[in-house]
Amino acid sequence: MCGIVGYIGTKEKRNFLISGLKELEYRGYDSAGIAVLKDGDITSFKATGKLTNLDHKVENFTSSGFGVGIGHTRWATHGKPTEANAHPHWGEFSYIIHNGIIENYKEIKDELLKDGVKFLSQTDTEVAVHLFEKNVRELGDSFKAFEKTITSLHGAYAILLISKKEPDVIFFAKNAVPLLLGKSNDGEVFFSSSDAPLIGLVKEVVYLEDGEYGWAKNQEITLLKNFVPQHLDFKALTQDKLSAQKDGYRYFMEKEIYEQSLVVGETLMGRIKGNSVVLDELTSLDLKNIDAIKICACGTSYHAALSACYMFERLAKIRCNVEIASEFRYKEPLLDAKTLFIVISQSGETADTLEALKMAKRGGMQTLAICNVDNSSIVRTADMTILTRAGIEKGVASTKAFATQVITLWLLTLFIGERKGNIDATTLQSEIAALLHIPLVLKVNETTHEKIRRLSKRYLHGHGFFFIGRDLFYPLALEGALKLKEISYLHAEGYPAGEMKHGPIALADSELFTIALMPKNLLYDKMKSNVEELGARDSTLLIISPEPFELADDFIKTKSHDHMMGEFFEMMLITQLLALEISIRLGNDVDMPRNLAKSVTVE
Predict the structure, then answer these.
(1) Are residues 452 and 578 in contact, defined by beta-carbon separation less than 8 angstroms?
(2) Average confidence (pLDDT) over 187-206
(3) CB 376 within 8 Å of CB 349
(4) How far does the chain reach from its first CA to its final CA, in angstroms?
(5) What is the maximal distance between C-alpha atoms in the chain?
(6) Is the peptide bond prior to 88 cis by the omega test (within 30 degrees of 0)?
(7) CB atoms within 10 A of CB 282
(8) Alpha-carbon distance 152 to 135, whole Å?
(9) What are the residues whose beta carbons fall under 8 Å from the beta carbon of 161, sequence distance 6 or more?
(10) Is a pLDDT exceeding 90 seen at residue 414?
(11) CB 514 within 8 A of CB 540
(12) Which residue among 190, 342, 396, 602 has the highest number of C-beta atoms inside a 10 angstrom radius?
């Protein structure tokens, strides 16, 4: 997730911009840059890698006296992590920084190219600064030009823009991406993506709402929405930096669970046009010579892969099998050039997955990476990559990375199914409608969270947990069990519900907790029979379902959904929150569980 800072005042601009960006390092980034407008001139610096690289570039730069400055850390979504793609981006007389994704950037870029505009980067952001300058030339008024520019942008954005045409102004806009502003007692104006950079500098801030935009000038702030002036609602700023980084949540994992609605929206942005899935990253994919898919992954990514296997065969009508990368490496696998080889990794550095990928390439297979980190080893090695856009994940136990992987694989399923002619228009339209609904499904219901918190006190003992599901909900059961064991240190296993009678049911008694995923839209009656068998052996039953279940010892009611994936993602949320709350009650460090590392870079 990118980071933004901005400053208007008389103090050294470089100091706040660099220190502010350092406070946002926890959000993750692969490049950074700043721009300072002073005495009618704009000076800009950019660097890839860590902020220390940018810091070295600006160490001899000074900007005391009145001026304005903007700074940015970038997590690549459009274009590689290079200096050219780093922010700020510029036109003839203006510089811009931007978080989020401009969905209609291609349409805007095509129009600007017709006007002879030259682009220096591969990013979606650069179109906004050129569009602004075009509007300035047409309207002769920078403020009206900015307003017109913002109304032309579709998608998610937090934008700061400076221009030589208005040397004492920062223009700003916010939609679906965090942005706040504050004023100091000295009349300085500050902007940031989160509280942390502003702590100690201002006491109150305005948390901008979606659709709001405006400009700061001469210690005055103009705020508008739909051309109508808005009241500046200042709120007290927390003074705890760690709490600010967590946005007030108790743990990063909790924050990341709550972020899933936002990041899944970003995963989808620009990838659905009308009733079609558009994956520009796959222009080189030759589907004519592909008749099967093999997926390799580890851990949580393996569970996402298993989920995809059901979708590929059910929707795209293409054979698919999934292998654990650490096993695949040593089994002397048969590699077929007509099989698309997909690897999944949050970090892009997972050692076993990387080695499996190299084997596939040596075998002449087309390779595709599903990854969260651009320019990682796996991304550099694979023929093609689809970035999941989850942003940095601080909690070792993966949450939003899993959600965005499944969404990305769902998109890929529809993309392949449509292009191979294996999915009809009605089904495709229905699937896309369901996809677009998932960000709403992932909004955490506070009442449900509180119920899970209270319920969790009953699940701190016993001799183990069974998470059970069928079909797509079997991989979700595996993932729910993994989340619990990772952070609670309680024994938990995921099983296909139909396998209980083939051995595991021997463990059933009142001290065995069964977490049953019972979606209404998929094999409900089969699941009901399996759960009744466990109930007859006195297993303690926690049922997660939209349908009340008479034998349930505990019951978490989900909403009614028309599509099974709506149920999938709501149940995913519930299992994540259950693991979180049990672990907190046990007094564990949720973000840094024992014996585990975020990126597994060794065998």
Answers:
(1) yes
(2) 93
(3) yes
(4) 29
(5) 80
(6) yes
(7) 18
(8) 11
(9) 70, 94, 95, 96, 97, 128, 129, 132, 146, 170, 171, 172
(10) yes
(11) yes
(12) 342
Q: Which of 449, 410, 422 is nearest to 564 (CA)?
A: 410
The model carries a pTM of 0.81
Calpha distance 226→208 (Å, rounded): 14
Instruction: Write down the pLDDT at residue 528.
Output: 92
On whether the CB atoms of residues 353 and 344 are closer than 8 A, the answer is yes
For residue 87, give the amino acid letter: H
Q: Which residues pair with 339 in a beta bridge?
A: 292
Strand partners, 156: 101
Whether the per-residue pLDDT at 473 is higher than 80: the answer is: yes
CB 300 within 8 A of CB 402: yes
Query: Which ranges of 382-521 does DSSP label H, i.e. alpha helix?
Result: 400-419, 425-441, 446-455, 473-488
pLDDT at 375: 77
SS3 268: helix
| Segments in 312-445 forming alpha helices (H) | 325-328, 351-362, 377-381, 400-419, 425-441
Tell me the sheet residues that pair with 236: 204
- 3-class DSSP assignment, residue 295: strand
**Gap between the Cα atoms of 78 and 389, Å rounded:** 10
Look up tokens 């109930």; give the residue.
Answer: 535
Distance CA 473, CA 496 (A): 8
**In whole angstroms, what is the distance from residue 406 CA to residue 307 CA?**
7
Place 2 in a pLDDT band, splitting at 50, 70 and 90.
Answer: confident
Cβ 418 vs Cβ 277: under 8 Å? yes
Confidence of residue 328 (pLDDT cuts 50, 70, 90): very high
pLDDT at 373: 86
| Alpha helices (H) along 83-195 | 105-114, 126-139, 142-152
Distance CA 469, CA 447 (A): 25
Task: For residue 520, give the 3-state DSSP assignment.
Answer: coil
254: left (phi over 0), alpha (psi -120 to 50) or beta: alpha
Identity at 301, one-letter amino acid code: S
Gap between the Cα atoms of 258 and 263, Å rounded: 10
d(CA 142, CA 151): 14
- Contacts from 549-553 at CB under 8 Å and sequence distance 24+? 549/518
Pseudo-torsion of CA 273, 276, 281, 283, nearest 10°? -120
Query: So which residues are the catalytic ones?
Result: 2, 598
Band of residue 601 on the pLDDT scale cut at 50, 70, 90 = low
- Distance, in Å, from the CA atom of 397 to the CA atom of 376, rounded to the nearest integer, reads 20
Q: Are 232 and 202 in contact (CB under 8 A)?
A: no
Provide the angle, in degrees to the nearest 10, between the axes of the packed helices 564-585 and 252-268.
160
pLDDT tens-digit profile of 262-298? 999 989 988 999 899 999 999 999 999 999 999 999 9
Residue with token string 């002397």: 332
Q: Residue 1 has what pLDDT?
A: 63
For residues 537 and 533, give the distance between their C-alpha atoms in angstroms, rounded to a whole number: 7
The sheet with strand 464-469 has its strands ordered as 492-496, 464-469, 512-517, 540-545, 554-557
Distance CA(564)–CA(441), nearest Å, equals: 12
What's at 337, amino acid-wise? A
Rounded to whole angstroms, the Cα distance separating 321 from 60 reads 56
Among candidates 565, 338, 311, which has minimal Cα distance to 417?
311
The tokens for 347 are: 């970090």
